[in-house]
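Our consortium's second objective concerns turning raw sequence data into structural hypotheses that experimental partners can test. To show how far this objective has progressed, the report includes one record in full. It was chosen at random from the queue rather than selected for favorable results. The single chain below, 212 residues long, was entered without modification.
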Amino acid sequence: MKQKLLIELPEIDQTYFEMLLYNDGVSSVAGVDEVGRGCLAGPVVAASVILPKDCGIKGINDSKKLTPKKRDELFDIILASAVAYGIGVVDHAEIDKINILQASLKAMKISVESLAVKPQYLLIDGNQPIPDMKIPQKIIVKGDVRSISVGAASIVAKVTRDRMMAELENKYPNFKFSVHKGYGTGLHLSELKQHGPSPIHRMTFAGVKNTD
């Protein structure tokens, strides 16, 4: 039996990547992240956030590791403190057309381009750079934990999308989008089996195709 190799990422200060850039003369850094890639319904949503150099917000982390109440609290603080923030949304139809990876990257690009202040550098969560982006960028695995800017973007994207999904429940009451947010939970799969896909389901996703 082969032993599974676990690679631990080193613990670093959340401002480490930002400080490296500030010390190199960069004055405006945007963290970028997206949410909703694994969902069976609804859009993928990305956010870009430029925090001030002396940002002292406590508690920023991967949005999935925070309670809804804490996310909402930090969301308001981040928006009030940010130099600028931008949102990018790519809907279910385009996800089906261009695939979820390309849709996620497109949402991130839209979020960057919607920033009122143009950043000099981007810190991107994950392992894929944003294509056709003239701004220098660095990809950071688990960036939402390791970078305060990316963590802030993670929270803004998550809260924005969760609220969008709660609103969509009013339009499609057969689905508890305010509860499962479109992810493939047992409740959601049961709803799909009973009612079939709604107009906002991602028809190319296996969990949806199998119920069509």
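The partners drew two points from this record. The chain has one domain: 16-172. The domain at 16-172 is CATH 3.30.420.10 (Nucleotidyltransferase; domain 5). Both points have been shared with the crystallography group to help prioritize constructs.
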